[in-house]
Amino acid sequence: MRRYITQRLLSAVIVLFGVSILVFMVLHLTPGDPVEIMLGPTARPGDIERLRAELGLTDPLPVQYVRWVSRALQGDLGRSIQLNRPVLPELLSRFQATLILAVAAAIIAFSLGLLLGVISAVNHNKLVDRVVAGFAMLAVSMPAFWVGMIGIVVFAVNLRWLPASGMYPPQGAPSWGKLLVHLIMPATTLALVPMAVIARFTRSQMLEVLGQEFVLTARAKGVPRARVIVDHAFGNTLVALITLLGLEAGILLAGAVYVETVFAWPGIGSLMVEAILKRDFPIVQGGVLVIATSYVLINLLTDLLHAAADPRIRVT
Amino acid sequence: MSEISSPTSAANQVAGAYAGRRAADMPLARLVRNRMAMLGLAVIVVVTMLALLAPVLPLADPNAINTSARLKPPGSPDAVLGTDQLGRDILSRLIWGARVSLLVAVLAAGIALSIGTLIGVLAGYFGGLIDNVFMRLIDVLLAFPYVLLAIALVSALGPGLINAMIAIAIVNISFYARNVRSAVLSVMSMEYIDAARAAGASHLRIIALDILPNMIAPIMVLVSLNIGWMVTETAGLSFVGLGAQPPTSDWGSMLADGRRFILVAPHAIMMPGIAIVLLVFAFNSLGDGLRDALDPRLREGGR
Q1: Which ipTM did the prediction report?
Q2: Quick one: angle between helices B267-294 and A144-151, nearest 10?
Q3: Partners of A86 in the beta sheet?
Q4: Which fold has domain A94-278?
Q5: CATH superfamily of B98-303
Q6: Which of A177, A199, A248, B175 has the lowest CB atom count within 10 Å?
Q7: How crowded is residue B208: how many other Cβ atoms within 10 Å of its Cβ?
Q8: A143 in contact with B at a CB cutoff of 8 Å?
Q9: Which chain A residues are closer than 8 Å to B143 by Cβ?
């Protein structure tokens, strides 16, 4: 186990190194002079020179990279051009909003997805199974940004049950209750795709386990069907589900970009889209770095959890 | 991430799944029996035909602005699906938009597929150092949630449809590379590869004649499962303003236009949305059907 952990940590460090190079290169891949693009056509030549020197863009690339990484490791990701504030605190406060949204969506996705998957597997090839399969297929085919808009039209505009956008009402003190009401629609929208993926995965895992001999043995011994399903089959499915965590985290973080845009949720995804359109590169660069790093860490954690739960993983 | 969580670990073993088949079990016969897959195929054919025939169909000019006929509801005498905020005919814009959405998705898939297959075949066939280097590079690509990497690339290249397409293609290289690599590995264990090698066949000959033909089935499954996602993703980038720029418009930018008039004219977002769902659903059904037909043991799993 210790060897596996060391190996996995090492490869995470290598991947993070690659990520940092890629993120660093993003700014330099940009066609044209990044400084001129940042300052726009109205910039004076003196300003361009000053900003270029300030950003250290006159140094050789490896020097720039090392300086950028060592600053990033100390928590300095530069200043936002639009907001004229340090990037990191801004990113972290927005990331917090994204995490709240993603965790809420994950709770919905896992609870409903597991439930639907188990129901499907237990009613294999019956009508319920087909309905769930059709629903799952539809859910993965619907773009979140469209579902979100339909939700706004139905639940916010016509029925007036839920607020259309934002994290809190514009006036008044923030509270948990207000947050929860604002969270319902975006979180449900974001949960649709991962819920469908979890339902399909759970169903196939359950079917596989239900077909195995120890399940048959348990049934032959007279263990009630419900207990076999819950203890034997579902228990074994949960271990396999750990592998889905990483994939789900990716779907949630990525989907958040669109859901945040539709619902004006003040998360890191909507911040980055705004930043790209306004050519605020430090925000984009920092945002990509923060999200990618957390995603690598989530995947690392997933793998370690999986190895802890299933000893066979560590050997290979 | 372990193999099982890869979007389509299903295709892994497709290549090796051809032992002892009978006529009724032939993949094509199985695919034709699958009603959902056939329905999907029909939708894809119809949408493709409409998109190809757009210039000769009796449609209103998709960009003709008519401010006196703004936001007409569906079912109006001269605009079956209504008009948008500039009085442009939505049906016509949908069909012309289908050209853009389909073309971008197909080209992006083609690019990702070619590069991904090349990497996957080289890594799987030669193994060792080459495999290690390529797979570490793929790991770096996989360290980004899909959309995020696309967004980072678009930010570097600048917003626009072509750049969005390039970004989507790059993001999906890892998907093809990983799955093709595992398919190659399963073929590599076959005896005829050893036989070819013993007979003195060159690497190039073995790859071209023994490996690649066995990749066609898994690649077909991968493409059909992936292309629906590409349609959604292109629309998504256009929706947030990073894809199609005016005057070009695809289904995603139609949604973005309609979004501002959501209160008075919800049909402006309903129509392009339904078009996206229909097409993506069709691709996904066909992909599922293809996977089941090519290897019935591998039902479910993947997205």
Answers
A1: 0.81
A2: 140
A3: A79
A4: MetI-like fold (1.10.3720)
A5: MetI-like (1.10.3720.10)
A6: A177
A7: 12
A8: yes
A9: 15-16, 18-19, 292, 295-296, 299
Q: Taking Cα atoms as reference points, which of A176, A232, A313, A196 lies closest to residue B280?
A: A196
pTM of the model: 0.83
Q: Which of residues 184-213 of A touch B (CB under 8 A)?
A: 197, 200-201, 203-204, 207
Chain-chain contact of B2 with A203 (C-beta, under 8 angstroms) = no
Identify which of A107, A156, A106, A176 has the alpha carbon closest to the alpha carbon of residue A263.
A156
pLDDT digits (tens, 9 = 90+) for B128-142: 899 989 988 888 888
Q: Is the pLDDT of residue B11 over 60?
A: no
B251 three-class SS? helix
Q: Which of A149, A292, A302 sits opposite B143 (nearest CB)?
A: A292
Q: How far is CA A201 from CA A190, A222, A249, B224, in A?
A: 18, 28, 15, 19
- The packing angle between helices B212-239 and B267-294, to 10°, is 170
Q: Do A19 and B288 touch (CB under 8 A)?
A: no
Instruction: Test B151 with A276 for CB contact under 8 angstroms.
Output: yes
Pick from B7, B146, B281: CB nearest A141: B281
| CA-based nearest distance A207→chain B, Å | 10
Q: What is the rounded distance in angstroms from the CA atom of residue B138 to the CA atom of residue B171?
A: 10
Tokens 């080209």 sit on residue? B107
State pLDDT tens for residues A73-127.
888 888 887 778 888 999 999 999 999 999 999 999 999 999 999 899 888 888 9
Nearest-CA neighbor of A156 among B163, B271, B266, B274? Answer: B266
